[in-house]
């Protein structure tokens, strides 16, 4: 009996301060922010901008209407140094889906875009001729606690 009481006290001793600290935090977790860093080959900025204004925007707008993302942005690096991205594609995601939800979304997306997975991969391969993914990040916004 004393061992159980001691174990319970030990657990409470560790978890209670964490719970209180979480309640006293001045910030709460907000959206996830997905950042894709894109490097565009010289002379292909217009081609990539045309893609972004077409299929990429269509896909993002659809994702907003489905509630999968809350917003998206395109940022350009006006003075990129050697090795830095030219463009950042930023997407605000309210929550990350589990595997089953991600698969369901993929099926809906493919149907909406009216392209097979093979066609989407082929199009991505064509864009690889003039742009490449230089990196990506998943950030978590911190918002002021209420």
Overview of this structure, please?
With 146 residues, this protein is of the alpha+beta class. It has a single domain, classed as Alpha-Beta Plaits (2-Layer Sandwich). Helices cover 49% and strands 28% of the residues. The chain has helices at 2-24, 45-66, 99-113, 117-127; strands at 27-40, 71-76, 87-93, 131-144. The chain has a 4-stranded antiparallel β-sheet with strand order 2-3-1-4, covered by helices on one side. The longest helix is centred in the N-terminal third of the chain and has 23 residues, at 2-24. The chain is flat and about 50 Å long. The model has no long low-confidence stretch (mean pLDDT 88).
- Helix tally equals 4
Largest sheet: 4 strands, antiparallel
Distance between the termini: 42 Å
The percent of residues in helical segments reads: 40-55%
Overall, the morphology is flat
CATH architecture: 2-Layer Sandwich
- The total beta strand count reads 4
CATH topology: Alpha-Beta Plaits
Give the tally of structural domains.
1
Low-confidence stretches: none
**Strands of the biggest beta sheet: in what spatial order?**
2-3-1-4
In short:
The chain is of the alpha+beta class and 146 residues long. Helices cover 49% and strands 28% of the residues.
Keywords:
4 strands, Alpha-Beta Plaits, flat, 49% helix, alpha+beta
Write the layout of secondary structure elements.
Blueprint lengths: L1 H23 L2 E14 L4 H22 L4 E6 L10 E7 L5 H15 L3 H11 L3 E14 L2
Antiparallel strand pairs: 1-3, 1-4, 2-3
